[in-house]
Amino acid sequence: MKRFLMIGMVAVSAFATQSAMANADLAKAKNCMACHAVANKLVGPAYKDVAAKYAGQKDAEAKLVAKVMKGGSGVWGAIPMPANPQVSEAEAKTLVKWVLAQK
């Protein structure tokens, strides 16, 4: 039983790591990483800072999905975030969930 539990824990951990990497790969593929990084501000805010700013907000996911797709301005300074028509709504949701999970 313990062995089965350990195997299950390893599988879940591997899946979570693979999923996190897949979302980072999606961010790269959709050119998000041209302006953002996980830990440091580039043109736009670091993803860990976005996660901290929106932590605990019930509407954060919907608000950020809209920003990814339509763009926005004024929240992080004078430089606007452009719209991203190459990102589908499903991809935007995946990306936003990943961003909000950053620490």
UniProtKB/TrEMBL annotation:
<dbReference type="GO" id="GO:0020037">
    <property type="term" value="F:heme binding"/>
</dbReference>
<keyword id="KW-0408">Iron</keyword>
<keyword id="KW-0732">Signal</keyword>
<keyword id="KW-0479">Metal-binding</keyword>
<feature type="signal peptide">
    <location>
        <begin position="1"/>
        <end position="22"/>
    </location>
</feature>
<keyword id="KW-0813">Transport</keyword>
<dbReference type="GO" id="GO:0009055">
    <property type="term" value="F:electron transfer activity"/>
</dbReference>
<protein>
    <submittedName>
        <fullName>C-type cytochrome</fullName>
    </submittedName>
</protein>
<keyword id="KW-0249">Electron transport</keyword>
<feature type="binding site" description="covalent">
    <location>
        <position position="32"/>
    </location>
    <ligand>
        <name>heme c</name>
    </ligand>
</feature>
<dbReference type="InterPro" id="IPR002324">
    <property type="entry name" value="Cyt_c_ID"/>
</dbReference>
<dbReference type="InterPro" id="IPR036909">
    <property type="entry name" value="Cyt_c-like_dom_sf"/>
</dbReference>
<feature type="binding site" description="covalent">
    <location>
        <position position="81"/>
    </location>
    <ligand>
        <name>heme c</name>
    </ligand>
</feature>
<dbReference type="GO" id="GO:0005506">
    <property type="term" value="F:iron ion binding"/>
</dbReference>
<feature type="binding site" description="covalent">
    <location>
        <position position="36"/>
    </location>
    <ligand>
        <name>heme c</name>
    </ligand>
</feature>
<dbReference type="InterPro" id="IPR009056">
    <property type="entry name" value="Cyt_c-like_dom"/>
</dbReference>
<dbReference type="Pfam" id="PF00034">
    <property type="entry name" value="Cytochrom_C"/>
</dbReference>
<feature type="domain" description="Cytochrome c">
    <location>
        <begin position="18"/>
        <end position="103"/>
    </location>
</feature>
<keyword id="KW-0349">Heme</keyword>
